[in-house]
Amino acid sequence: MNKKSFGSRIVASPYIVWAAIFIIVPLLIMVYFAFTDSNGVFTFANFAQIGKFKKAFGLSILYAIIATIITLLLAYPMAYYMTKLKISSQRMIMMLIMLPMWMNFLIRTYSWITILANTGLINKLLSYLGIGPVQLINTPGAVILGMVYDFLPYMILPIYTAMSKIDNSLLEAASDLGSNSWSRIRRVIMPLSLPGVISGITMVFVPSVSTFYISQKLGGNKTLLIGDAIEYLFNTGPQYYNIASTLSLILMVLILISTLIMNRFGDDEEVVV
After folding, report:
1. Among the listed residues 179, 178, 112, the one whose alpha carbon sits nearest the alpha carbon of residue 143
2. Under the phi-then-psi rule, with left for phi > 0, alpha for psi from -120 to 50, and beta for the rest, what region is 132?
3. Mean pLDDT taken over the chain
4. Containing domain of residue 155, as a range?
5. pLDDT in tens, 177-197
6. What pTM does this model have?
7. For the range 104-112, what are the long-range contacts, defined as Cβ-Cβ under 8 Å and sequence gap of 24 or more?
8. 267 falls in which pLDDT band (50, 70, 90)?
9. Is residue 108 part of a domain?
10. Could you report the per-residue pLDDT of 108-135, keeping only the tens digit for each?
11. Is residue 43 part of a domain?
């Protein structure tokens, strides 16, 4: 073993210890509870109860897909617009995008409660127009809105990073060959920004499909997502740890599969001018 390799292992050792304690050990505990009953006996019985939560799984996946699509539609033109600005303006907009992320997650969610409530800001504005009150809070739309608001920066940042790395000479070459603005976007920018899009989709879909606090506060417990079910079971008592761990394991597998599928489409594509 050379000194350089030994030194690298020494430097990496704190992370290895941290990963073992906070990642590997909890995963092993989750797997143990998923395949045992309340007496610690090996069983597959927990998986037989998964059918009771199929609606929660379906809603979680559906809401996550909708939220991901909306964030992509909002983030892509925003990231493209940012790359056309001066560097100082790009930094300013980036700071504004990052600003909500610096605030506590609970504060951001509670702010939407005050905005969407029947006596909130939006309904007060509508009342001046003789409309309302409109039921905005405690609806599926409010849950999706909360997801989009909280996870939008995770879509913008990787797309913006990918676009900012595109060589301007490629766009100039496309223009010289007679490509118009839309053709340059479709044939050059979109293929080269695809890795950023895939990263953004992953970073939005994964937390969206497993979220629970947003649905509780903005959905009023009327919308049961799989994250809500898992939290409820864990908080109910030790007798439900096994089924909660089983749901967590299945959710983790679904997230892993979706991530692998999305990453499969993240390879760089050939640019056709």
Report:
1. 112
2. left
3. 88
4. 53-264
5. 777 888 888 888 999 999 999
6. 0.88
7. 105/150, 105/213, 106/213, 108/149, 108/150, 109/146, 109/150, 109/213, 109/214, 109/217, 109/218, 110/217, 112/142, 112/145, 112/146, 112/149, 112/218
8. low
9. yes
10. 888 899 899 988 889 999 888 888 789 9
11. no
Domain contains 125: yes
Q: Residues near 42 by Cβ (< 8 Å), separated by ≥ 6?
A: 35, 36
Number of folded domains that form the chain:
1
% of the chain with per-residue pLDDT over 70: 93
Within a domain: 22: no
- Say how far apart CA 52 and CA 74 lie, in whole Å: 35
Q: Give me the CATH number covering residue 119.
A: 1.10.3720.10
Provide the residue type at 166 as one letter: I
